[in-house]
Amino acid sequence: MKALTLFGILVAGAISIGVLYSGDSQPALKDVFKEQFMIGAALNDAVVSGKDVNAAEIVTKHCNTITAENVMKWALIHPEPNQYDFAAADRFVEFGVKHKMFIVGHTLVWHAQIPDAAFTDNAGKLLNREAMLVRLKDHISTVVGRYKGRVKGWDVVNEALTDEGEFRDTKWRQTIGDDFVAKAFEYAHQADPDAELYYNDFSLEKPAKRDAVVRLVKDLKAKGLRIDGVGIQGHWGMDYPTRENFDAFVDAVAALGVKVMVTELDLDILPSVSDYQGADVSMRAELQKKLNPFPDSLPDSMQQVHANRYAELFSMLVSQSKNINRVTFWGVYDKTSWLNNWPVPGRTSYPLLFDRNYQAKPAFDAIVKVVQK
Ligand code: G3I
């Protein structure tokens, strides 16, 4: 009898640990927010290739949309002018198709993560407009064409604007001119007429940049080009954006008749590097401590502050949900977030909803409560 009771306790214990670990007691975010917007995550290759099974479980449970964090960027998918490498992007797309997710391709035209050789001829000389347009068209028709019908939306152009609302001075601009944006949208539509096409950028809640993106969308539309949405990245902090600026951005974009998407959401709680600019280098060790104040774990009080801010952000998103069709987190769990290595390498960052052991954080419950209210 005693043995049986002990066996029962062990089994019950094992089941409850299993339930806790697999997250079965949690609601799926894609169900929680099904009336508001799709929920997504940016995935790296470890998640889709089977190396990070626990992260993949989180994604299949909570997300109905995924974005490629890196594998579709020019440097990875088109590393040499005459060489494409589709292996990782193929795995990403297969994962999304298998789990019936809305797949977003990121990104066709960006000034970062692109080899210098993409802009030059064999002698290393910058290409002229015509030659660069040929290269752009080849890239877009090859990549978009390969995933036609499976990748449902593309970040066609990423980060073409400065915070002041000018065109960023990049090699795209130097070779082609400002209409590289329009050309990219034109070629993407030709390659897959059914795919949704987006412009994606950060800090779009800043008034000058908001006005610039509005001008850009109007210009594309005036040229008769397809544009379906504007992605605001959402690398947000404890005191930005303000609700007022966010609402003004969403209203301005929605008034143009295109969708708004939050495409790269994470919430940084670490100290801002700019607060320490110009600090005495002889204080380096001390500075590192200040910039990386929680190398082992985030204290409970800070978890709560982080959770409260997440709740505030989601109440802002939910109240605008008629104009927002997707909220995608930039990563799955804290350990693999890009913020561990930017803007300072080697910090321990806590920007997402799941911790380094794949467990839901207080922020998870906090955002669920926003809609359960
Ligand atoms: O894969 C290599 C690895 O082999 C090498 O050992 C290691 C050494 O540095 O680097 C690894 O590559 C890194 C790659 O991420 C994969 O982890 C690159 O150095 C690193 O630069 C790259 O960072 C990416 C960053 O874009 C590049 O600007 C981040 O993962 C990615 O999250 C980030 O994503 C961007 C969006 O595309 C656009 N919006 C901003 C966002 C955050 O910067």
Question: Would you kindly provide a brief summary of this structure?
Answer:
An eight-stranded parallel beta barrel has the order 1-2-3-4-5-6-8-9, surrounded by five helices.
Written account of the structure:
The structure is a single chain. The protein has 373 residues and is of the alpha/beta class. It has a single domain (36-272, 282-372), classed as Glycosidases (TIM Barrel, Alpha-Beta Barrel). The protein contains 14 helices and nine strands. It has an eight-stranded parallel β-barrel, surrounded by five helices. Helix 11 (243-254) links the parallel strand 7 and strand 8 (259-268). Helix 10 (207-222) packs parallel to helix 11 and helix 13 runs parallel beside helix 14 (362-372). The longest helix is centred in the N-terminal third of the chain and has 21 residues, at 2-22. The radius of gyration is 22 Å and the shape is globular. The protein starts with a helix and ends with a helix. 40% of the residues are buried. Residues 1-22 have low confidence and may be disordered. The site of ligand G3I has 8 residues, from loops.
